[in-house]
Structure formats: C-alpha cells, structure tokens
Request: fold
Amino acid sequence: MLILVLIVIIIWTTWIVKLYRQKKAAKATYNLITLGLLTLIICWELRLIPLAADLDFRNKTEELTGRKFWCWNDYRYDEIGIRGEGFTFEIYTLNDEMATYFTNPDKDFFESFPTNKFETTKWKETPILDTELVNFVTPNYLNWSQSLQKEIQEKQRIV
Reply:
C-alpha cells in the first residue's frame, strides 16, 4: 500500500510540474494544494507530524480515564501486527493535578474506565499481582533484537 501511495504521489507531482510548464498555473496550483492537504492529513493520521500523537491521546483521555487532560508523550513504541498481534507501549508525563487524581482515583474509576469502545479490560490497581494480566500486556520478544528487548523491559520497569 505504501509503495502504491508513493507511486501516486510521484506521478501526481510530475503531472503538476507539467501543468506549470504548460502555463496552466491555476490548474497546477489547485492540484498542488489538493496534494498538499491530502499529504498533511495522511501524515497527521500516521502520527508523523509532531504533537499529533499527543493531541490524539488528549482527545481520548475522557473515555479512557473519565477526565479530559493534556499530557506529553515521552516514549512510544509501536509495532504493527498483521493479524492483531501488534504491540504498542506509551509513556506520558502528567501534570501534578492529574498525577494526584490517578494516585487516588474516584470510586468508579476501576469499574467504568476505559469505556468498552477501547478495551474489554478495565484499569487495575498497582502493583499488578495477576500474572495472567501481566503476561497479557508483556510482548512476545521472539523476533526482537536484544537491545530492543532491554529498552522495552527498562521502560516497563519504570512504569
């Protein structure tokens, strides 16, 4: 799919250049703006633009936690799986108010969040003693390099 998109972009760009050379500036400018907007939207959705991941997370915080807030994404590892076996691990820095909220959350926090839109498993109190859950959230390191395994394990220990 990525190769197909790149081919389309190259063909479209050469066509725009030809339009400019043929003195059809209005048509070329229209196509250039359209190509630019489509590229911007695709890059935003793929989280290639800075702050896209942070803003995306902020838009989901209310359904994930019951409160809407802003936070900074400090670490993100995203392994795309073909059949749903992918792995995403993210670490966010919270402000003092939100850190206090998560230290002593509301009574219904563990029962109500995240909503069913995101997960079938609700939040758990730490430390997590349920080994089945820990095994579920731990990635399968089968094809990972030693350095990547150490990196992810170190980040998990921090959390």
